[in-house]
Amino acid sequence: MRRQHGFSIIAVLFILVVLAGLGAVMVQLATTQHLGTLMAQEGRQAWYAARAGLEWGRHRAINAGSCAAITTHADIFGFAVEVRCTQQTFTEGAAQVVVYQISSVATAHAGKPDETRREARMSVWKDL
Predict the structure, then answer these.
(1) CA distance linking residue 8 with residue 66, whole number of Å
(2) Strands, E assignment, the chain
(3) How does pLDDT run across 28-72, given as a tens digit for each residue?
(4) Torsion over CA of 117, 123, 126 and 128, rounded to 10 degrees?
(5) Assuming Cys at both sites, which of 1, 2, 100, 121 could form a disulfide with 61, CB separation 3.0 to 4.6 Å?
(6) CB distance 50 to 118 below 8 Å
């Protein structure tokens, strides 16, 4: 009777290949999850940068009484923030009301695959 030699080595190699494949899949899943978390964090930061632009635009519109000098570009913590403002005047009864429509767009990594962009808008009115 002949004894079989080498079967154990083949079994061990097979198990090692399977375990290496599982390890590679786990590393890929962890990397994907980490990148997703980073993108979500950057999205939140972009939202806050856009909100900061809105608040700046609101302050300028209410205190200056005009949107004339409000279209601007700024850099807030690595985000390019563009603030725009338009205004309309309405008459309600005997009162005149001016409505400011302010929009703010915060962008990071513009034009790249990992571009993050958030837009926020608000309307503010003021009696004249």
Answers:
(1) 83
(2) 72-76, 79-92, 95-108, 116-127
(3) 999 889 888 988 999 999 999 999 999 999 998 888 877 876 667
(4) 100
(5) 100
(6) yes
Residue 128 three-state SS: coil
Q: pTM to 2 decimals?
A: 0.72
Q: Which residues of 100-124 are buried (b: 16+ CB within 10 A; e: fewer)?
A: bbbbbbbbbeeeeeeebebebeeeb
Q: Average pLDDT, stretch 84-108?
A: 91
| Helix (H) / strand (E) containing 106 | strand 95-108
What φ, ψ does residue 117 adopt, rounded to 5°?
-145, 130
Residues near 49 by Cβ (< 8 Å), separated by ≥ 6? 76, 77, 79, 81, 106, 118
Query: What are the structural domain ranges in the chain?
Result: 7-127
Across the beta sheet with 116-127, what order do the strands follow? 72-76, 79-92, 95-108, 116-127
Cβ-contact 73, 87 below 8 angstroms: no
- In the numeric block, which tokens belong to residue 38? 């980073």
β-bridge mates for residue 126, sequence order = 98
